[in-house]
TrEMBL record:
Pfam families given in the database record: ABC_tran, oligo_HPY
Keywords assigned by UniProt, alphabetized: ATP-binding, Cell membrane, Membrane, Nucleotide-binding, Transport
Protein name as annotated: Peptide/nickel transport system ATP-binding protein/oligopeptide transport system ATP-binding protein
GO terms, biological process: peptide transport
Lineage, opening ranks: Bacteria, Bacillati, Bacillota, Bacilli, Bacillales
Membrane topology of this protein: Peripheral membrane protein
GO cellular-component term (any): plasma membrane
Source species of the chain: Brevibacillus centrosporus
Chain coiled-coil ranges: none
Length: 320
């Protein structure tokens, strides 16, 4: 039996606004094993990034985790104070953010920012931290790392900055790495290199990875299991082969149908009509019913539960 590195149980994260309470994450549960890559997919606004920030303890006011448990190696992160969480972040728990230019401080060198991780978590002096920083830059494939360590972020390309972010995230060999759209701002060849790098590090260090993306091509390439989110809820969960071969939820089918396929010639790709609903004006019954081609009257009034529709395959649909 594989050991569960992370368990998220019935997580609720709400934002208090002038117009009311926005339930951004609404009772989601999933787990990640050591060395496993779990992809969380869905359109913008479905709660993917808020889920990752909730795990990291980085939800900013007016947002707040209001319920559930987040267990990392059995320890409930929601029971920790800020100081204890800070000690954990960057050490056991790391995150690669989607925009490296805003995540790196423009007035400090790469070595200064990377070295801080070693000084903070591993009590190294400046010289030792610099040496380890150069090693980490080499690990993530940065050429002339001994020179780059003294560069400022603006002197690096987007791909190089993202590699620096990965080096920072992996500096202390974290047990769990969260990658939030790690290739969004990069061109396709650099994307492939970054994903290859993440895969290699995942294999070498047995790190558990949560990959947050809306790119199903990346999911097929990287993930072991997939969680599909819609309107703050998990609507489907399965291993990657099962999900691509036999999707059960109409939303997942719509996402997969919008991908171009090499073996098919089509005039136009399928699309899912409409948009993710405003969390303050959630439709009754199934949240997806206004956009669903299979919706019936029952879908408008009855809220479906997340149930097992095949071995280790969950879906939230009355007709799955």
């Amino acid at each position: 039996m594989e050991t569960k590195l992370l368990e998220v149980r019935n997580l609720h994260t709400h934002f208090k606004t002038e117009d009311g309470v926005v339930p951004s994450v609404n009772g989601i549960s999933f787990s990640v094993a050591k060395g496993e890559t779990l992809a969380i997919v869905g359109e913008s606004g479905c709660g993917k990034s808020v889920t990752s920030l909730s795990i990291m303890g980085l939800v900013a006011p007016p947002g707040q985790v209001v319920g559930g448990e987040i267990l990392l190696e059995g320890q409930n992160l929601l029971a920790l104070n800020k100081k204890e969480l800070r000690k954990l972040r960057g050490n056991k728990l790391s995150m690669i953010f989607q925009e490296p230019m805003t995540s790196l401080n423009p007035v400090f060198t790469v070595g200064n920012q990377l070295g801080e991780v070693f000084r903070l978590h591993q009590n190294m002096d400046k010289q030792q931290a610099r040496g380890r920083s150069i090693e980490m830059l080499e690990t993530v494939g940065i050429p002339r790392a001994d020179k780059v360590v003294d560069y400022f972020p603006h002197q690096l390309s987007g791909g190089m900055r993202q590699r620096v972010m990965i080096a920072m995230a992996l500096a202390c060999n974290p047990a769990l790495l969260i990658a939030d759209e790690p290739t969004t701002a990069l061109d396709v060849t650099i994307q492939a290199q970054i994903l290859e790098l993440l895969k290699k590090l995942n294999d070498e260090y047995d790190t558990g990875v949560i990959l947050i993306t809306h790119d199903l091509g990346v999911v097929a390439e990287m993930a072991d299991r997939v969680v599909v989110m819609y309107a703050g809820e998990v609507v489907e969960q399965a291993n990657v082969f099962e999900l691509f071969a036999s999707p059960k939820h109409p939303y997942t089918k719509g996402l997969l149908g919008s991908l171009p396929k090499l073996d098919e010639q089509r005039e136009e790709l399928e699309s899912i009509p409409g948009a993710v609903p405003n969390p303050l004006e959630m439709p009754g019954g199934c949240a997806f019913h206004p956009r669903c081609p299979l919706a019936t009257e029952q879908c408008q009034s009855k809220k479906p539960s997340l149930v097992e529709v095949a071995p280790d395959h969950l879906a939230r649909c009355l007709y799955a």
